[in-house]
Every structure is written in C-alpha cells, then in structure tokens.
C-alpha cells in the first residue's frame, strides 16, 4: 500500500503484512489446539490497537483488562462469561467486551474478526 507516516487513512489489507502467530497463554488452554494469526495494522499512542485476528478451533480462558470492539467476519465462536450466559457469535455480529470480563472463548468454526482495542 505504501503508506507513509503522514497518511491519515489506513486500510486493512491482510496480504500487505505477515501475521503474528500465537496460541492461548500458558495455563489458559481448556481444549483443542487453537492457533492464532493476528494482523495488527494500528498501534497508536495511548494503547490503541486495531487489526484482524483469526483462530482455529479450540477453547481457552479469557480475562480482559482492556476494552475491545469486535466485528466477526467469518466462523462461529461461543463466548461465555463466568457465572453468565454463553453467547454464540458468527459472521456479521458486532460487540464490545469491557475490562473485567472473565470467562472462556471457544472457536467452533475457524473465526476471523476485526478488532479495536483500547488499553
């Protein structure tokens, strides 16, 4: 894309950068062997991040200290808050997870999402 530091419009073209590969943090895996790919397009001052994340099937514990907006692009996942209800999310769904959320994320079908995170 050839973006310069002065450009103020940033597109999310996942073919333009190599994804970071990862998996659930040690001790958080519940089942399966989920593998993550993350294309982080924006890292701004003040702890703001935006990009695309993808995971293969599996289940792990999640704990949010940050605020995150998610837009599911593909796949099916189930997000369950400790002591709360299980929510199935699929392509087209948008939601916010607020700081303090604790529970699990289970990918049923490989899931890809756009995200914006504010620390």
UniProtKB/TrEMBL annotation:
Protein name in UniProt: Cupin
SUPFAM superfamilies (UniProt xref): RmlC-like cupins (SSF51182)
Organism annotation: Pseudaminobacter soli (ex Li et al. 2025)
InterPro entries on file: RmlC-like_jellyroll, RmlC_Cupin_sf, UGlyAH_Cupin_dom
Gene3D superfamilies tied to this protein: Jelly Rolls
Pfam annotation, one family: Cupin_3
CDD domains: cupin_TM1112-like
Domain (S)-ureidoglycine aminohydrolase cupin: 43-115
């Amino acid at each position: 894309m050839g973006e310069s530091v002065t450009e103020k419009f940033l597109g999310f073209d996942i073919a333009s950068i190599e994804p970071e590969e990862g998996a659930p943090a040690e001790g958080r895996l519940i089942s399966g062997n989920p593998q993550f790919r993350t294309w982080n397009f924006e890292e701004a001052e003040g702890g703001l991040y935006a990009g695309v994340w993808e995971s293969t099937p599996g289940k792990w514990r999640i704990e949010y200290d940050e605020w995150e907006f998610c837009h599911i692009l593909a796949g099916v996942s189930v997000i369950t808050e400790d002591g709360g209800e299980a929510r199935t999310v699929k392509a087209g769904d948008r939601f916010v997870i607020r700081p303090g959320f604790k529970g699990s994320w289970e990918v049923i079908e490989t899931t890809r999402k756009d995200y914006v995170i504010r620390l």
